[in-house]
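Usage

Read records sequentially. Each one opens with the input sequence:
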Amino acid sequence: MLLQTALVAGLATSLIFGQMTADGETAATSEVAAAALSVAPVAVVEPSAPAAAPKAVAGVSGKILFRGEAPAVVKIDMVSDPYCVGAHDGDVGTQSVVVGADGGLANVFVSLTGVPDERYKAPKTPVVLDQLGCMYQPHVFGIVKKQDIEIRNSDDTLHNIHAVPRSNKEFNIGMPEKGMKVTKTFKKDEDSIMIKCDVHPWMVAYCFSMEHPYFGVSAADGSVTINNASDLEDGEYGVRIWHETLGESSGTVTIEGGAGSFEHIYK
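and closes with the structure output:
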C-alpha cells in the first residue's frame, strides 16, 4: 500500500512537472493532477497519544513568617581558626533567627500530629550533615528514628561532632581531616537534639528523631513541604512548629487527597 501510494504520488509529480514550458509555467491541467492523485490518496499517519504527565507528589505545603522587627544578625567571631575566616568572603552571622526579605523565617521544624500510631520504617537513604565553612549544613534537620546520619567534614581543619541528647546515646567524635565521613543514628524519638563542635563553639545544629516521616524544615523563604501526605486519610491534623529561639507553636491543616496548606506567623 505504501509503495503504491509513493508510485502514484511520483506519477502525479511527473505529470505536473514533466509538462513545464520553456518559460517555467506548468502546462498540466488541474484535472490531470487531480485524476492522478485520486487513484490512491496518501495515508495519514495518526499521531501517537501523548505520554501521561508524571503524577505530582502529594504533600502539605506551608509558609512560616516573621512579622515585626527582626532581631539583628549577630556576627560570628571566627578568628580562633584562620581556616574558618578564609572560608568566607565576608562576615558570617548566626543561624538562630534568619528572616528573608519578604518575612520568611528559615530553620523552623514543622511536624504533623494526630497521624496513625504505627511502626514506621526508617528510610534507607541517610540524611547528610556536613561541616562546611565551619558551619553545620543543615542547621536544623529531622530523621525517622534509626535512620542513618552521614556526617561529613568538608573543611580542611579539625572538627569534632558532639551530640548532646537527653534520652539517646551521646557521642563525641574527632574529625581532623577533610573528606572524613562517619555514620551515626538515634534509636529513640527525641526532639531538638543539640549537635555541636567543641573546637568551634559557634557551630550548632539541631536534630529531630521522629516516630513518623511527616515533617519538614522551612527554607530561606519560609516555605516548608511535608511529603508522604498521600499516605494519610483525609481530615484535619495538628501542626507542631518549633524554632530554637522563638519557641513552639501549633496549628491545624486539613488534608484532602494527600495535600493541604497552612501558614504560621511568629511575632
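Summary fields computed downstream for this record:
- The chain has two domains: 2-37, 59-266.
- The chain has three helices and 16 strands.
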